[in-house]
Amino acid sequence: MNSISIIGAGIGGLTLGNVLKQHHLDFTIYESAPAIKPVGAGIMMAVNAMQIFDQLGLKEKIEKAGNIIHGISITDEKLKPITKTNISELERKYNSCNVAIHRAELQKILAENIGSEHIKLDHSLQQIEKKEHYFLHFENGQKIESNIVFGADGIHSNIRNQIFETGTIRNAKQKCWRGLTDFELPEKYHHQAFEIWGNGKRFGFVKLSEKKVYWYALINEKKFNNNLNLLDYFSDFNPLVLHILESTLQEDIILNDIIDLSPIPKWYSENLCLIGDAAHATTPNMGQGACQAIEDSYIIGKLLEKHKDFNFIFEQFQKIRRKKVDYIVNTSWKIGQISQWEQGNSLRNFFMRLIPETTNQKLVEKVIQLEL
Ligand SMILES: Cc1cc2nc3c(=O)[nH]c(=O)nc-3n(C[C@H](O)[C@H](O)[C@H](O)COP(=O)(O)OP(=O)(O)OC[C@H]3O[C@@H](n4cnc5c(N)ncnc54)[C@H](O)[C@@H]3O)c2cc1C
User: Fold this and answer.
1) Which of these, 185, 227, 327, 371, has the minimum number of CB atoms within 10 Å of its CB?
2) Whose CA is nearest to atom 17 of ligand 1?
3) Which CATH number, 3.40.190.10, 3.40.50.300, 3.50.50.60, 3.40.50.720, labels domain 2-170+260-368?
4) Pocket of ligand 1 (CB under 6 A)
5) Count of C-beta atoms within a 10 Å radius of residue 218
6) Each residue of 163-211: pLDDT tens digit?
7) Is the pTM of this model over 0.85?
8) For the segment 233-272, what is each residue's pLDDT rounded down to a tens digit?
């Protein structure tokens, strides 16, 4: 019998694996995919996540594999600044930086540090049964008994659906393309992330490594037209946007709907706990979904320093995490709506330009501060 099983080897499950390993606990991660091969896209690891990776001894590796980003600029279509948040002071205070990195690189570092003996690929959980212990039935015919189970199986979590029988997926009615391209960005863009706000559409880009640039593009769903080319939607944006799009191979672009999980009342049941997107998936507007999955793992680790009873730990875990997670899910949803306005954008931009940088920095600090 397994003492601890984690379902899902995404960023949440892999970070939890690293935390449990640090505590010398016996665990196995089960992943449905035949290889740890996340979507070909970039991701931003904010200072909250990087502080945790520091404690896991992984900060330098992740910084080296990615690109340090000192701030985020929101601009209008012509790249004229609306707001700019420089976090150099916060970086010094928390001794960590934001890092933009290829998802595959990040998951490789997390998985390698755990060791392949702890990760079972090609194990798609089909059914979970609660008897005295949990019985995990996998599509490949394997049946495993486990004392403790973590559901780190993402927004469409099977564990959540079967054990909690709850979870409404909300659709923000925005289409999102993500792409990776070999592109030489001018130097002034090397250590800042940019998000350009237009009418009912947005375009973001950030440098990931020597030549790789990660970008994302969003439009309101009602403007989506299968006959249009991505370039057509953004033809009124600064030419840099069009050059980035033109340089991207079709096979390096993915398209998704923007969704999140309507908050669920409870993340744990007897000897079982959900973490990451399975518990509290958010829209990506604050770049915090994975960072919050990493924080979940960190808090479980902090609680394990003082307690042995997992049921007590799960209860405390939700008490500690709930407020911040709800704030992020709700704020991110609102940012997604404001950033995609179709009318009154000059007024929106005018008022946003009046917000002092210190206010933005305070908001950032609220997010990057760890709870324990
Ligand atoms: C456009 C976009 C941009 C984003 N940008 C950022 C960003 O910059 N920064 C940030 O922090 N977050 C970002 N996010 C959010 C982030 O991607 C997610 O929050 C994060 O991946 C959640 O991690 P997770 O491990 O909880 O779930 P997932 O990444 O969904 O991982 C779940 C894992 O479980 C596996 N699995 C699922 N079902 C089963 C099963 N039945 N059996 C076995 N295995 C199973 C899956 O294959 C997967 O590997 C973004 C999201 C989007 C959509």
Assistant:
1) 227
2) 290
3) 3.50.50.60
4) 7-13, 30-33, 43-44, 123-125, 152-154, 158, 176, 178, 216, 256, 276-278, 284, 287-291, 293
5) 26
6) 999 999 999 999 999 999 999 999 999 999 999 999 999 999 999 999 8
7) yes
8) 999 999 999 999 999 999 999 999 999 999 999 999 999 9
